[in-house]
Amino acid sequence: MNAVERLFTPDVKAYAKGYFAYLHQVLDGIDPGEIEGFVRILLDARERGAAVFFIGNGGSAATASHFANDLAIGTRTLAKPFRVLSLTDNHSVMTAIANDFGYEKVFSQQLQVLGKPGDVLVAISASGNSPNLLEAVAYAKSAGIRTVGITAFDGGKLKQAADCGIHVPTGLREYGPAEDAHMVLDHLIHGYLTAAIARD
Asked: Domain spanning 31-199: which CATH class is it, in words?
């Protein structure tokens, strides 16, 4: 039984308070230095005109789309906006690759077409063990694309495979707090970047 399961009580208000308290604990466990490192990578990519690709499965696919939206569309009025794309969003491309070559190829094959040396790949996964993410990271590293893993649970294989990343310390199978925290990171990072760029 993980921490979220142990929180259960028939009292909805008590459960909500317990969940919020646990989420606060999870957020406090994130290393701010890892956030700073990711922000520096994004700013460097913007400065160089490099592309940033986001990938993920399930709830993490939604987070990848949200990250891409906030960074690309949220900075579109700047003189130098971020060049960001979520590789989860073209259903025709994803299903064609999955059908013809296997689901583990859905991101790596897109990178083969779109990615260039110096670009950045951000893989989002609570477990860190999704084969299609790990294959994309392996391809990216072979192609000179910098890799970032945003993980939870124990980080899985992704935490070790990526060049760097942000780890959200949760128990195994605690998808709710893990994905909540990943979205907080999205809004935190977007808020910081837009304010910092506007100040410059």
From this structure: alpha beta
